[in-house]
Amino acid sequence: MKLQTAQLLTILSEYQFFDWEHHENNKHRIMIGFPENMLIIKDFNQSFGFDSVENPYSNIKISKKQWVHMEDLFFQWISPYLSTFRLTIVTPFLSNDWEGECHLDDIMDDEFADAYKAYKAFLIGNGLYGLTPTLIENCRGYQIDHIGDFSILGKMAARNYHYLFFADGDKVFMFTDSLTFQMYCKDGEVLHNEKRKIEQLLNPDFLL
After folding, report:
1. What's the pLDDT at 186?
2. Interstrand relation of 205-206 and 2-3 (parallel, antiparallel or unpaired)
3. Strands (E), the chain
4. I need a labelling partner for 42 at 20 to 30 A (CA). Which of 55, 82, 137, 207 fits?
5. Where do the structural domains in the chain lie, given as residue ranges?
6. Considering only CA atoms, which of 106, 153, 100 is closest in space to residue 126?
7. Is 128's pLDDT higher than 90?
8. How far apart are CA 25 and CA 45, in angstroms?
9. pLDDT tens digits, residue range 65-115?
């Protein structure tokens, strides 16, 4: 559900614990990645992530086809945990630019195209992007309606789009271009409870 800017700011007022400018000041944080037995590319967590895709200068080579496969695996794997959130909103860091660096009116026909097309359809269907490309001034936030929304948005985040997700008044998280999940919690108790839940549901590799 699209959020008007005033609605978005009212919701974000609950997240005073989060330091937008200096993420290192957020003490109660956690970062997780694929467990070792799920990695289809050896030493993936030491790669440049998305910047390694078809990059001749990367020590770890990743093809577009491999990246798409890993994206799909990642969001299938993490979805059971994301489904425990009651209310999640997302914003492109308070910007109204949902298109980012990808020109959605000129999508290349390659292995990456399906995710971009799904994202464009998602934006248009939710009133976040016009059929004629334009910035819609009051579209700076969206309330997650379906578990599949995380995958559509998360795949773009992993491709260097910049989104922040806010959940249940006590968690702020993001997906990174290395297919990791980074979360900042309101306090130590929330961190402890979420870490225990993550261990039970995902058995991840804790990177932080």
Report:
1. 97
2. unpaired
3. 2-3, 29-33, 88-91, 141-143, 164-167, 171-175, 181-185, 205-206
4. 82
5. 2-206
6. 153
7. no
8. 24
9. 999 999 999 999 999 999 999 999 999 999 888 887 777 877 888 999 999
Q: What is the pLDDT of residue 130?
A: 67
Name the token pair of 81: 């945990």
Residue 117 in this model has a pLDDT that exceeds 70: yes
pTM tops 0.85: yes
Who contacts 39 (Cβ-Cβ below 8 Å, separation ≥6)?
45
Residue 28 φ/ψ, nearest 5 degrees: -95, 80
* CA gap 162, 175 in Å, rounded: 9
The Cα 82–Cα 161 span in angstroms is 19
Residue showing tokens 């030493």: 43
Give every CB contact of residue 30 below 8 A, 6+ residues apart in sequence: 182, 183, 185, 191, 194, 195, 198, 206, 208
Are 16 and 10 in contact, with CB atoms under 8 Å apart?
Answer: no
| Structure tokens, 193 | 């409870």
